[in-house]
Amino acid sequence: YKDTVNEFGYRYFEAKGLNYSVFGLSTGLSRLQTECRLAIHAFSGMRDEEVGQLPYACLETSTLGGRPHYVIVGATTKLNRGKRKAARWVTSSEGARAVHLAQRLTELCWRIASSWKSVGLPALDETPLFASVAYLKLAGHLPTGAEDRLIAPKFDLGGVPGLRALLQPAI
Questions:
Q1: What is the tens place of the pLDDT at every residue in 52-82?
Q2: Given a cut of 50, is residue 27 above it in pLDDT?
Q3: 3-state SS track over the chain
Q4: Per-residue model confidence (pLDDT) at position 1
Q5: For the whole model, what pTM was predicted?
Q6: 88 pairs with which residues across the strands?
Q7: Residue 153: its pLDDT value, please?
Q8: What pLDDT does 144 receive?
Q9: How many CB atoms lie within 10 A of CB 152?
Q10: Cβ proximity of 18 and 28 under 8 Å
Q11: What gap in Å lies between CA 160 and CA 91, rounded to an integer?
Q12: CB-based contacts of 163: which residues, under 8 Å, 6+ apart?
């Protein structure tokens, strides 16, 4: 069993161009967050700032005609002179899946950070959807500026190495 898991893990890391190390794991989790963000963009029409400010508990599901329908609840400043206002975006099952995956990653960060932070953290539902994977203490530095809560990493789509190559088809 252990050999199978190790072999699968190694093949996964190799296929993704990651080092088979703690640093590679941290990089892979950060990439996974980026992929979740991009899926939410693609399947909701949200802007980057809107996705970046989503709370952990942002997904509502309802059933109509026997089919699930998904709505992402957040905030926007669009058409409101820069002031935040509540907003809702309809999304597909793919967008909902991206939210669920981002929630699982953030819950992991929250649980681990709760075990070592000296100050109690707010409830998971009050955490941003994209808490920094640095809270896992796998590699790099911990985020600074908020001792009493988890914060989202700084994110710039233009700064993601190789993003254009991944998204732009060869013509």
A1: 999 999 999 999 999 999 999 999 988 888 8
A2: yes
A3: CHHHHHHHHHHHHHHCCCCCCHHHHHHHHHHHHHHHHHHHHHHHCCCHHHHHCCECCCEEEEEECCEEEEEEEEEECCCCCCCCEEEEEEECHHHHHHHHHHHHHHHHHHHHHHHHCCCCCCCHHHCECCCCHHHHCCCCCCCCCCCCCCCCCCCCHHHCCCHHHHHCCCC
A4: 41
A5: 0.82
A6: 73
A7: 73
A8: 66
A9: 18
A10: yes
A11: 24
A12: 34, 157
Q: How high is the pLDDT of residue 168?
A: 61
- Please tell me the total number of residues recorded for the chain in this structure: 171
d(CA 18, CA 150): 26
CA distance 29 to 33: 6
pLDDT digits (tens, 9 = 90+) for 141-161: 777 666 667 777 776 666 666
Q: Distance between CA atoms of 143 and 107, rounded to whole angstroms?
A: 17
Radius of gyration over every alpha carbon of the chain, rounded to an integer in angstroms: 18
Work out the angle between the directed axes of helices 93-116 and 22-44 (0-180°, nearest 10): 140
| Contact (CB, 8 A) for 54 and 47 | no
The tokens of 44 are what? 């909701």
